[in-house]
Structures are given as C-alpha cells and as structure tokens.
From TrEMBL, chain A:
Signal peptide: none annotated. GO terms for molecular function: electron transfer activity. Pfam families: ETF (PF01012). This is Electron transfer flavoprotein subunit beta. GO terms for cellular component: cytosol. It comes from the Bacteria. Its cofactor is FAD. Keywords: Electron transport, Transport. The electron transfer flavoprotein serves as a specific electron acceptor for other dehydrogenases. It transfers the electrons to the main respiratory chain via ETF-ubiquinone oxidoreductase (ETF dehydrogenase). Gene3D superfamilies: HUPs (3.40.50.620). Belongs to the ETF beta-subunit/FixA family.
From TrEMBL, chain B:
InterPro entries: DHS-like_NAD/FAD-binding_dom, ETF_a/b_N, ETF_a/FixB, ETF_asu_C, ETF_asu_C_CS, Rossmann-like_a/b/a_fold. This is Electron transfer flavoprotein subunit alpha/FixB family protein. It comes from Cryobacterium tagatosivorans. One of its GO terms (biological process) is fatty acid beta-oxidation using acyl-CoA dehydrogenase. Its cofactor is FAD.
Amino acid sequence: MKIAVLVKEVPDTWGDRRIDASTKRVDRKGEVVIDEINEKSVEAALLVKEANPGSEVTVVTMGPSSALAAIRKALAMGADNGIHVVDDGLVGSDAMQTSAALAAALRPGGFDLVITGNESTDGRTAAVPAMLAERLGLAQLTFLRTLDVTGDVVTGERMTDDGHLDVRASLPALVSVTEQIAEARFPNFRGIMAAKKKKVESLGLAALGLPAEETGAANSWSVVEDVTPRPARSGGTIVKDDGTAGTQLADFLAQAKLI
Amino acid sequence: MAHVLVLVDLANGRPAASTGELLVAAARLGEPAAVVVTEPGTAAEIASSLGALGAATVFVASSADADSRLVTPQVAALHAAVLAAGEVSAVIVGNSIDSREAAARLAVRIDGAFQSDAVDVTAGAAGILVTQQAFGGSFTVTARAARGIPVISLRQGSVDGTAPAAAGTIRELDLDADTAVGAEITARHEQTQASERPSLQTADIVVSGGRGLGSREKFVLVEELADALGAAVGASRAAVDAGYCEHNMQVGQTGVTVSPNLYIAVGISGAIQHRAGMQSAKTIVAINKDADSPIFDVADFGVVGDLFTVVPQLIEAVKARKS
C-alpha cells in the first residue's frame, strides 16, 4: 500500500505567536516546529504500514526550506521518503492554493491512502483535507479518532460536535486524524541517522505544473483588509483565600451583574 | 437581489439551532435561501420552519442517502443550488465540522473564496467583509474575497437578532448527476442535547475544570457550579487526557474556542494553549492553588486557594443570591 502523510511546520504554540503587520500574514520568523498533530498523523501512517506489510510511507510538506526539518523528523520516526513542495512563488498561499499545490504533488504518486492532521494550530482552517479529497477524487474520512485499514476498506470513528460517527470507505481514501488517534513514537538514534540518507524530492511550481499567476499571496482568494491585535488584559484582582474567597467571588460576580 | 445560500444542518430531522443565525447573516448580504438535504417526504415541514426563520427560497435535495453519506450529499446540494439560483453573492454555513468541510469542498468545485470561522459578516463597499480571529482571539482579522463567490463558515453565536419571515418557497434539487466518491456512515453515536445545560459554543457562562480536580468523580464539582450558574461545562486538555470528561468538552488550541460573558477556570493552570481557547471571554475568573499559575495573568478576579473549599462556598453563595 502506498501511504502519503502530510505534515506542516508551524510557529511553536508555546511561544508568542504574531501576525506580521506589514504582510498581514503569520509571522514565521520565531521558533517553528512540526505541528504536534502531524507527529500523530505520522504515527497513524506508521501503524497502518506495520499492519499492512510491504507498505511505503511518503511524508509530504509544503513550506520554506526550513520545513525540511519537519520531513526529517517524520523520516526519523520511520517514514520511507519525502516530498518537499517549496517555491518562493507559493509564499502566502491560502487554503485553496495550498490544497491545489499539494494535490499536484500527490497526484503522480498514485497513493492509496492520504493521511493528514484534522487542523493545523496556526491557520486552524481545517479545510485543506476536505479540499484535497475534492481535488483528488478520494473518499473523505476526516476527524477520525480511530483508524483501521484492512484489505481495501478503511474504517474509523469520526468526531462530531455532539459525539462520533462510525464511517467506512474503500481505498483510495483521504483520512484526517484528531489528536486522540495515537501517541507519537520518539525517533531513536538509528532512526535519526537513517533519516539523513532517505530520499527527499523537492518540487517547485514548474515541476508541479502550477501557473505563477494562480499562486502566492498576490493571487490569493481573499484579501486581508485589516489586522488588529487584541489589547492586553489589564491586571485583575487576585485574592488569597482566607476562608471567605468563595463569598468574595460571588460578590464580584454580583457587582459585575454576572449573577 | 442576489441569493445568499445557507446550508441547513439538521438535528433530529429539524433545522439545527444555528440555522436562524445563519439566515440573519444572509439577510444582511442579500436574499436568504436555505439549502437542505433531507430524507424524502419531509421537505414541506422543514421548508415552512425555514421560511419562518427568513428563507425566501428553500432548495431541497431529497435523498435516501441523506443520513448515510458523509458530507458529499451536502456538497452536491450546495453546488446544484448555486447553479439553480442564478446570481449568488455568498454561501454561508455553520462552523460545525460537517458544514465547514462541505463548504471547503464547494469552494474548490465553484472556484470560490473559502473563509473559515467568521465571527462577523457585513456588506462593505468593496464586497462582503468577513471578520475572523487568529491565534485564539489574539488578533482580529478583516478580509474580503478577492475573486470568486465568498463561501463563509460562521462561528455559532456570532450574529444576533432574527430575520423577517419569508415565503420559504420550495425548489427541488436533483443530485443524480453527482459522482463524488464518498464515505458511508455506518452508525451514529451522538447525544442529541439530552442535557439541560447550554452548549459550550454559545453559552453565556462557561465553567471549565482542569487537572486540579484530580479525578472523574471530583469533576462533578465543576458541573455543580455550572448548574448553579446555568453555565456550560468545559475542560482543559489535561482534564480530558486524564479522562475526567468527554473530549468534545475541551477548550483550547486544539479544542473548542469560546468567548462567553463569563469564563470560570477551576483548577486550570492556564497553559498558553488553553488560553488560546478562552482569552476572548469578557470576564475571566480563576481558582487555583498555585499563585504562579499563568491563568492569573488573564484573570479579572483570581482566587489563590483550595478549589475544594472555595467552589462549594461559591456554589452556596450563588444559590443564596438566586433564592
């Protein structure tokens, strides 16, 4: 089975994340890491591979040259090879453009199963997986918290706002996974050394066959008019419980007309 | 006037609670038209309730597969409605997982401008303006479509008011031409709001519990405070991971984003990922035994103390004031 797993490099959620006032885009100059959900997506891909001997896992990312680190991390965990979609002309892509570029990168591979995270921690659009299924004509099984691939049948539990659904489809399919899917394994020393020798193919606009007039921030489907940072919260009242804090808190809520 | 299409989520065969709000938003931008995929034979009743909520037209796709296919029937219905409606100035859906994915696929199919998780929509001189929040409300972003029809998912609880009642005229859609490969829903395990509590996304008050509660049994204290206040119950990721409550109660970076009038954090340290899901609440209250917890940096009123003595006292005081 040919499995593709998509990963994304994002600003570290432990840091102070910003939108650049001049470009009106996410500031990616600070600490960037592989998105936590993608370590779990890679784990999910490796579990499918282990359950289906003879499978191959290709890790795919779109991002600047630094995003190679996210691919190497996935390769160190055990993925077999990588595809890095990288081109200055792709900078500032929105979900429509990102899904178009990723679809172009995935199409020639003839993948049976494409695995992604359910949503990134930076954009949180949660749209690219569905868009990819639409573009590639794959069955869509998204927001899965469990995943099983037996023969050519994919099943899993899809999270909804009020519970979950059992879903099923035949391969080829696209799956997005939630953070409940699995705990990611840690790469060991051997894995890290082996990752350095694994093949990573770089694909730019020309190789993808994407016209320059369709790509990048200048050709995005939406224009950001304004970005306003939320004003910092001013200092509140902090009390140490002297035995009456619960009552004091009720007084505060009543004064603020909240109860 | 151009149509503004609204995708209707059904709950127990009726338009979901969020539908009215979507039609109010649509009425700001054009003539509201609802799009619904339903089992055969139920269209008339649904259309009359959608008319009362402001839909001038109700595009109905009757399909025996309505309940057993994931997302693809809704995409096909929206696409068919765009083609049938003639002029369409926008498509608005709820920001539920299902509806947002249907909208994302529709945007690809019609080369539209997908705008996710809007907290406001207005008609501007240069087009429809969509307000979104980035990084859990750290930034407010206003954007408009540069090309294509805007396809917008609207966060629940963002728009107030009601739209004037309209005709709710049924127009049938035919989905036979749809060839999309889809996934099959083999079973549903969903709570149909059996709880008396308000939903987390729209509640005026949210009480959330964290690891400080210590166990699933003791998490009940959070629920008791919530019930005394008429609030929804939320949780930190640590509490969810520890199994104190269900995953769909998780507030934060990788859970639900809430902006209630009042947010009460009980036994939550307030890691940056949790704050990303609640920092836009109007008033924030925190109860935690560790004075150095980062939650106190965003609290309007903080109590450093043992939650197992503070919270019961608060519940008594709230009940005393209410009676």
